[in-house]
Amino acid sequence: MSADTKKDGLTREVLFDFHGVPMTTNFTDKWDKIQNFQAKPDDILIATYPKAGTTWVSYMLDLLYFGQEPSERETSVAIYDRVPFLERKGLSPGLIAPSLILYVGVDLANNLKTTPRIIKTHLPIQLLPKSFCEQNSKIVYVARNAKDNAVSYFHMDRMTLTQPDPGDWSCYIQRYMDGQVLYGSWYDHVNGWWKKKQTYPNLHYMFYEDMVEDTGRELDKLCSFLGLSPSAEQKKEILVGVQFDQMKKNNMVNYSKFVLMDFNVSTFMRKGKVGDWKTHFTVAQNEVFDEHYKTKMKDPTLQFRTEM
Ligand code: PPS
After folding, report:
1. Which atom of ligand 1 lies closest to the CA of 246?
2. Helix axes 54-66, 232-241, angle to 10 degrees
3. Whose alpha carbon is nearest atom 23 of ligand 1?
């Protein structure tokens, strides 16, 4: 497990075992409140393993439901205030709930005035608050291939000064394979949610690689799952807005105002590519990773693309 270190007055958190999943207190502190969260039937939950494309799909959903007219929301409310991160503890959330100083995402979600509420979580399926399924809320799960996901997560951990210290890449990739990173094993996460999809029809399982390949097609599938029929004009506007280069320069979605991240270390909208893992994995690391992958990914119905 990572050491507790201090930089810029911020403390990097330490992983601990939480119901079998490595977590940090930033995401477990108000656990009773999180577990007792009361979902509503029209809530839309975006569930992902970290770095799988959460922000991309969050913004797509936000534009679909609330993007028709120019609004203060579009110009002054950051995506993490529009789409609360259910289990995250944080400081003053800004415009949506100005009275809250120390909050957990549940508070933000409960303070949302808009319908539907779009909510984000990184929890593995076994830790999801029960009310989402009891209420038959719609769930959008986004998965990304393990290699690009690992690289993106490594840079996120480097730049986010409260995340456990990632150390160097060669140690990190081993810990990632062992599931010893925040939110635990990528393999368990994507498989757990994939299994859930077999018994919970209100779950739409998306792949980051499909979105890169054809964002319009994936937007159409998303709309059909949600029962939405946006106009051709609206779809066109959304597809422009969610392009990587557009999102990278949009201060409301690129996390540039998020004080816990050091953009001198890395950026949030970093590369947005399929296959960037090739710039990080050595040939030997790739061989070890592939062998290990085969032992963890036994379900032939769940397939990922690592290049396109
Ligand atoms: S988080 O912190 O878990 O919410 O991060 P998340 O949003 O899930 O993932 C961030 C990665 O998604 C990439 N991203 C995109 N790729 C392509 N197109 C668009 N529009 C887009 N928006 C976000 C982002 O660049 C991160 O991936 P990397 O590989 O680090 O660039």
Report:
1. 20
2. 150
3. 56
CATH of 6-296, one of 1.25.40.10, 2.130.10.10, 3.40.50.300, 1.10.510.10: 3.40.50.300
Residue whose C-alpha is closest to residue 214's, from 187, 235, 191, 190: 235
Q: Is 199:134 a contact under the CB 8 Å cutoff?
A: no
User: Whose C-alpha lies nearest to ligand 1, atom 4?
Assistant: 54
What's the pTM value of the predicted model, to 2 decimals?
A: 0.94
Q: Which of 211, 256, 268, when mutated, tests ligand 1's pocket best, judged by the most ligand atoms within 8 Å of its CB?
A: 268
Residue with tokens 């797509």: 60
**80 C-alpha to ligand 1 centroid (Å):** 14
Q: Kindly report, residue by residue over 161-211, the tens digit of the pLDDT.
A: 889 999 999 999 999 999 999 999 999 999 999 999 999 999 999 999 999
Per-residue pLDDT tens digits for 85-122: 999 987 654 545 555 556 789 999 999 999 999 999 99
